[in-house]
């Protein structure tokens, strides 16, 4: 790119240089450059490699076709090659994670600069990832430079630029050059001093460097400027001066030979950047002729080299060349290009891009191509594939591609559109080979939509009346068993799962066997109350399923099942490892809905373990949990629980959406505890009973592990109110649950409830020991209860129990619990004596949580966020949030500064 277009840009160049030098020193940053077309954005970006010694530079450029294929521009820029065959649930989410992961790993080995030009053409997913990368620059040695046209205005690009501006990104608008700078540009172009007549022409360019260049070059060719004695003089040109940049470019192209102009128009169909071999296929011209055209285009400044390819020197030159042809001609050329590229074995995405621009392409040929290409295209670019499939469905191809379209709609989350598409096809084609996969997709989406009765109807109808091979009959039977489980029919579900497993083994189908065993494991844990058998079944199912990409969703479900089950069984280290494995798979596969469930499980584990700050970090990292996902209410519930114990306000304790009620136990518990905290124990007990004893029978049915833990709060409140029937009934129900389920946490809760019912302080203290370090809140609550029970009979033991309870509460930051315990015991004459604050510092090394210190040390050792996530069984997002907290608490601006700070701390500090 000519430096003429950077004349008068000293301030902008200095700002760019400073940003690059800063990232080379380890400090990340974000720069957004905007301005009108031709004002010099691309020229400024071209300087980056010159300034970026010691940095890894990745550069890319969006095009008008970028919006068709999500994340294509960032994948090309950052990843550089298509992904291999791997586990994919949501290809867009998976590719987004892949971009972020690549950046993280590059940043672990040194400073990185990512530049993307023409972001006004980028797709929505790329813009969303750009925003996440901009946030990451606060902790990574990453400089993010984006350039976009200021016109035409695109709403989502405008929203992104405003969001970036508000979060620390440097905004740089390239204004048109002033008159003196414009004259200097022309003087360089002409190698002569402009006369007054030339300066008059300069004013017409409005300070746009590209317009100036095109105008001057056109006038030179048209003999509109003469140079004599070092002075350039403007004569009356043969044609009027073009009034706009676009018309100026059109006029400039008019000086090319007819062959060159026609060939470059064909090249424009291939895009802003093209390969000579592709142009040869499209133009059907010999390579010798094309070589002459290329030489002419390079000499005229219309083309430029782009590695092994060629490119139009400016996007506007490409646009003018493309738009100079009638739409019917360009559409026909796109169809021809698609056929030629397909025949040459070029990537399906390139073929699809041309077909999308050829709405009247031969439907039969397109349908044949889609039938072959759809599986791969749907995995990488579902949006473009679905557009083509929907377009072709009304044509001669009819509905023979419906199974591909159903898959595409599923990948795009357009679940409600699948039944109107699939059900008529199932009714009319009972013997088609498509019946199995179409039925699976329809029933599975009905299950996801919560329409379990409809899912069962579909499965029953097809299994009774359709012709299915052994494999699909086994799979649909396994899915039917899972639907029965969701409908609360566990006995039928177990029988159906047993039959489906046998059918799957007979057909040799691992998917059918895996789903059947998963359903059996669910039934064993939830209704059979045999958690060890459930975990064992899930482990066996995982081995059966293996790592087949087709079973990724099932593998994630099994990992969640095993992680939850092992935690319930008290196998805490194993559970943490499984959660880490599930996080890694969910991120790699792009599974936001499963990531939501993982966030909940990880946050609940951190809450129960007493690592409340880590639980809050999980919640803060939950940007990958879809807003409409009902598990968000579970995340809100955990935050609300921590808030009430820490005596803090929390907006999460509010109305609960109806579709989320079944996941609202944490939030309902927080609501009840808030009533107790606010001096309304009767209302608190009523709220607990509504949650734990919905029939008001004092039988407390269906007690899960969590409900048994919440029951201990209800029993404490009931005992304080003298509601002995509630205390006794709750103790009986919890003991029955402990005997049936054989889970250590339920056994400890039963001990606590029985101790309160029998006024047995020793049993309550035994419960505290049983809760131990894995459930510190409940251990402390047990000791608080024991202290109150011992206050009269044994004041010394009471004080010890109170002190131990308060010490744990203090470690948790449970301000309300401390206040409540002190108040209860003060009434009985027990006081703790001097009570100094143990509040953690807000800044410095001592302010870091144990997990943050571990992360800081790993950062200091040079590990990337993804590597730290694997080591600590966390998600990459959670590690990123931890690093952000560390930077803030240590007043550091880079990972390098964190490393320097860690070096000053004693190794034993923890």
Automatic annotation (TrEMBL):
Query: What are the GO cellular component annotations?
Result: cytoplasm
Q: Which GO terms describe its molecular function?
A: adenylate cyclase activity; ATP binding; DNA binding
| Keyword check for Oxidoreductase | no
Which Gene3D superfamilies has this protein been placed in?
Answer: Tetratricopeptide repeat domain, Winged helix-like DNA-binding domain superfamily/Winged helix DNA-binding domain
- Tell me the domain of life: Bacteria
Swiss-Prot/TrEMBL keywords: ATP-binding, Nucleotide-binding
Q: What biological-process terms (Gene Ontology) are attached? A: regulation of DNA-templated transcription
**What PANTHER family does the record tag this protein with?**
TESTICULAR SOLUBLE ADENYLYL CYCLASE, TRANSCRIPTIONAL ACTIVATOR DOMAIN
Q: What is this protein called?
A: Putative ATPase
The organism named in the record is: Asanoa ferruginea
